[in-house]
From TrEMBL:
SMART domains: HTH_MARR. Residues 15-151 form the HTH marR-type domain. GO terms for biological process: response to stress. InterPro entries: HTH_MarR-typ, MarR/SlyA-like, Tscrpt_reg_MarR-type_CS, WH-like_DNA-bd_sf, WH_DNA-bd_sf. Keywords: DNA-binding, Transcription, Transcription regulation. It comes from Acrocarpospora pleiomorpha. This is MarR family transcriptional regulator. One of its GO terms (molecular function) is DNA binding.
Length: 156
């Protein structure tokens, strides 16, 4: 309890409104991605992993987990499913044979491009009627928030 007699976890209406809105948006995006990716046999975590690998090939399990915001154990499951689907390959690092580097296969690159079309459609529906300048401002604000929330975390 605080000095005012309120529970410690009570937040102001303004804080709740922003956090609640962001949470609802995140859940809505996840739901739409799940539905959109289902015909391709992929999950949002698998798609996130593919996009991370397209941007930076050769990452280890731990590096991928940090960038995709999942635990190393969860990433191991994601990687196993992507290997089985023929979307990624893994090989020992030249620097450390115990570390497996992960790369997209040509099929993985093709599937990632198909997923991008689904993500583009979701973004376009979500931002319909929002001027381009406002979209860029929103993106900049979100990136700044992500940078601040991740400040001090290793690997971010």
């Amino acid at each position: 309890m605080s000095a005012a007699g309120e529970p410690e976890d009570v937040v102001s209406p303004q804080q709740l409104r922003l956090l609640y809105a962001i949470g609802r948006l995140d859940r809505g995006i996840q739901r739409e991605l799940e539905q959109g990716l289902r015909p391709l046999g992929l999950s949002p975590h698998q798609y996130a992993t593919l996009t991370v690998l397209r941007a930076r090939s050769g990452l280890s399990n731990a590096q991928l987990a940090r960038r995709a915001y999942v635990t190393p154990q969860a990433m191991s499951q994601v990687l196993t499913s992507l290997i089985t689907a023929g979307l990624i390959s893994r090989s020992p690092s030249n620097d450390n044979q115990r570390v497996l580097e992960t790369r997209l296969t040509p099929k993985g690159l093709e599937v990632t491009a198909s997923c991008d079309l689904i993500a583009d459609e979701i973004e376009n529906r979500m931002l319909e009627g929002v001027p381009q300048a406002d979209r860029l401002s929103l993106l900049a604000a979100i990136r700044a928030c992500v940078q601040r929330i991740n400040a001090g975390l290793p690997g971010t």
